[in-house]
C-alpha cells in the first residue's frame, strides 16, 4: 500500500450471486499500528513478500508484531536494519543492500506518463496527497530527491513484454 493507495481489499467474493468485497482504509491501519507512512512501508518490506526476504532477526511466526515494535523503537526500517548489521543472518544475506534496493524499487517505481516518458512515481504525482493528517510526509519529492543510481535497480532496458509497444498516432 504505497503512496496514493487509500484502501486495502481484505475480502473478495466474485463467485456468489451478488459479488462483494470488504475493504479497510490505510489511515485506520496506520492509526491502529501507531506508525507513519514511511514506517508502514518499512514494516511491509521487513516482514517480507514475494520479491523480498523477511528480515532475519524477526523471521518467525510473530514476525509482524516483532517488526512493528522494532520499527517503532528504531524510528525507521533503515535504522533497524543498521542496528542489526552484525547479526549473522543479516550479514550472510547482505540484507542492508537488499532492503535499500527494495525500498527504492517501491518508493521510486518507474511509470509511463501519458506523454510516453518514463519517470519515478514521486515525480509523476503532480500534487502531494494532503489529507490533513500528520502521518503524511510533509515534503513532496523533487528531482533532487530521487536517487541518481536508479538505473542500477531498474536497468536502462525495458522488459521484453514492453519492448513491443509502439506509439501509434490517433486520427
State the low-pLDDT regions, or none.
none
Q: What Rg, in angstroms, do the CA atoms define?
A: 19 Å
Largest sheet: 2 strands, antiparallel
Q: How much beta, percentage-wise?
A: 5-15%
Estimate the helix proportion, in percent.
40-55%
Oligomeric state of the chains? Answer: single chain
The count of DSSP E runs of length 2 or more, i.e. the number of strands, is: 4
* Spatial strand order of the main sheet: 1-2
Q: Could you give the distance between the termini? A: 38 Å
Helix and strand composition category: alpha+beta
The DSSP helix count reads 9
Mean pLDDT: 82
Order of helices and strands: EEHHHHHHEEHHH
Task: Using the alpha-carbon principal axes, give the shape.
Answer: globular
Task: Describe this structure as you would to a colleague.
This protein is 41% helix and 11% strand. It contains nine helices and four strands, in the order E-E-H-H-H-H-H-H-E-E-H-H-H. It has a two-stranded antiparallel sheet with strand order 1-2. A two-stranded antiparallel ribbon has the order 3-4. A hairpin with a 5-residue loop joins strand 3 (110-112) and strand 4 (118-120). Helix 2 packs across helix 3 and helix 3 crosses helix 4.
Main attributes of the structure:
globular, 9 helices, alpha+beta, single chain, about 170 residues, about 10% strand, two-stranded antiparallel sheet
Question: What's this entry about, in short?
Answer:
With 171 residues, the chain is an alpha+beta fold.
Secondary structure topology:
Layout: E1 7-13, E2 20-25, H1 26-33, H2 37-47, H3 63-74, H4 77-83, H5 88-93, H6 95-107, E3 110-112, E4 118-120, H7 121-124, H8 150-154, H9 160-163
Antiparallel strand pairs: 1-2, 3-4
Helix pairs in contact: 2-3, 3-4
Amino acid at each position: 500500500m504505497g503512496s496514493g493507495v487509500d484502501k486495502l481489499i481484505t475480502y473478495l467474493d466474485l463467485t456468489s450471486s451478488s459479488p462483494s468485497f470488504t475493504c479497510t482504509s490505510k489511515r485506520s491501519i496506520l492509526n491502529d499500528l501507531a506508525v507513519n507512512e514511511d514506517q508502514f512501508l518499512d514494516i511491509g518490506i521487513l516482514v517480507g513478500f514475494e520479491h523480498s526476504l523477511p528480515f532475519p532477526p524477526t523471521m518467525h511466526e510473530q514476525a509482524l508484531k516483532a517488526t512493528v515494535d522494532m520499527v517503532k523503537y528504531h524510528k525507521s526500517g533503515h535504522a533497524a536494519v543498521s542496528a542489526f548489521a552484525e547479526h549473522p543472518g543479516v550479514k550472510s544475506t547482505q540484507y542492508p543492500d537488499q532492503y535499500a534496493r527494495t525500498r527504492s524499487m517501491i518508493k521510486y517505481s518507474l511509470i509511463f506518463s501519458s506523454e510516453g516518458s518514463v519517470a519515478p512515481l514521486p515525480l509523476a504525482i503532480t500534487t502531494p496527497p494532503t489529507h490533513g493528517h500528520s502521518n503524511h510526509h510533509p515534503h513532496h519529492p523533487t528531482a533532487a530527491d530521487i536517487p541518481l543510481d536508479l538505473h542500477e535497480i531498474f536497468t536502462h532496458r525495458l522488459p521484453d513484454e514492453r519492448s513491443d509497444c509502439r506509439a501509434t498516432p490517433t486520427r
